[in-house]
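This week, work through this protein record:
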Amino acid sequence: MLVSRLSEESITQKAKENWLSYWKYFSKSSHQKCSVPNCAKNHNQAIFVADPNDQQESIYVVPLCAEHGNNESNQLEIQDNVELVPIGFTL
């Protein structure tokens, strides 16, 4: 699945780690690896993405390894089975 990476200019590394905790809490998945196909590294942060096919233009959290999480590209290919967690949930 191809998703669009949202701007991360003001997001710190600590914030990316906190968003990973958010993803783990709200996800029904036990997925431990980076969401990028063929990446065998464990995820250690999360970023904001948008699904170009989502007409509501929702923002989602996706877990990635440091290499892919810190990549500057606008488009990101992720595995189809990765759960996209919306950012609107609260405890």
In short: The chain has a mean pLDDT of 91. Strands lie at 2-5, 45-50, 59-64, 75-77, 85-86. Residues 1 and 60 are 13 Å apart (CA to CA). Residues 2-80 form one domain.
